[in-house]
Known about the structure:
By secondary structure, the protein is an all-alpha fold. It has 17 helices and no strands. Helix content is 73%, strand content 0%.
Amino acid sequence: xxxxxxxxxxxxxxxxxxxxxxxxxxxxxxxxxxxxxxxxxxxxxxxxxxxxxxxxxxxxxxxxxxxxxxxxxxxxxxxxxxxxxxxxxxxxxxxxxxxxxxxxxxxxxxxxxxxxxxxxxxxxxxxxxxxxxxxxxxxxxxxxxxxxxxxxxxxxxxxxxxxxxxxxxxxxxxxxxxxxxxxxxxxxxxxxxxxxxxxxxxxxxxxxxxxxxxxxxxxxxxxxxxxxxxxxxxxxxxxxxxxxxxxxxxxxxxxxxxxxxxxxxxxxxxxxxxxxxxxxxxxxxxxxxxxxxxxxxxxxxxxxxxxxxxxxxxxxxxxxxxxxxxxxxxxxxxxxxxxxxxxxxxxxxxxxxxxxxxxxxxxxxxxxxxxxxxxxxxxxxxxxxxxxxxxxxxxxxxxxxxxxxxxxxxxxxxxxxxxxxxxxxxxxxxxxxxxxxxxxx
Length: 441
């Protein structure tokens, strides 16, 4: 565990002598490697030496870099060795991962080998290698379900093995049910949902209206809120589920802005009536913590994963399908009832925020000192007020001033309690409180 000091037992004289002997051999082998590297000695001797050194110190990235150079030299000399050399290096990197399952260099080397298989051996060889690699990921995550190095590797491997986003989504569900405190599984889920969204709802379907797609997506997100609620009651002080919950709130907001853009694309005029709230204003107001809640779901964020050609083509086809589903709008506008308005999105937003706020009050009655519940409750309260203002649900001036004063006092009490519970983040809580006050003024 992090932050836990490990005290090693004292060594005997025999153990110290044995360790000194091993260190001397290691230093001698390291010196030999540095000489070979400087002279670019790409032969079997250097190839075998790097393998032995990796068993002792897999985190020395220079070993892996030199091994890549040697491997490329061997393939250039004899292309028929490609398959056997890749298998050998996969075995070497596997031994390194058994010694250190979180070795950056070993994971990177395996991904490099798969790309090499695709470049030199063709698409089928790369796909087969990726499928085998996925099996390794399954085994490694059985050993340690929260190994974020392996999760990151799995994301890249799954794209190369042509595993669908739905299949990987189901896999994260299994892992989350095994342990709600699996931040990597929640995070991977946030990468998969935009892809599923683009494929399933943005591209449309035969006979599916925009209203139908909107409802299906909202039901999908509601199921996610239910899942994360179960995590709250199981581990209320674990941050993994709370951060995912905040991300889900952002998807609800993003969906509203998507609705606004869809409405604009299906109308024959760009003029907006004064009674219709604008997405830019509402999104700006709802970004109360500077946490980018208004990010558009349609924009797939691959992060540091490489996008395969197949993924890029899939994304291109989805975009084409979305645009081709409404060409008639230029000559024959669709039925008004089939186009959800931005107001509909705000109403749904208000419904979700209110529902989640009420459920957190229930949790706080059981766990009154849960800092994550207190903070999220305040965020939701601010979001509810913003939606109400955007929808025009405003009382008279005197009532508004009294309500604002009461809300500020309630927020002050909540943030004072947060500062007591979490004094290390005092300035953060003060800053958030000031932002809420400024937003209401």
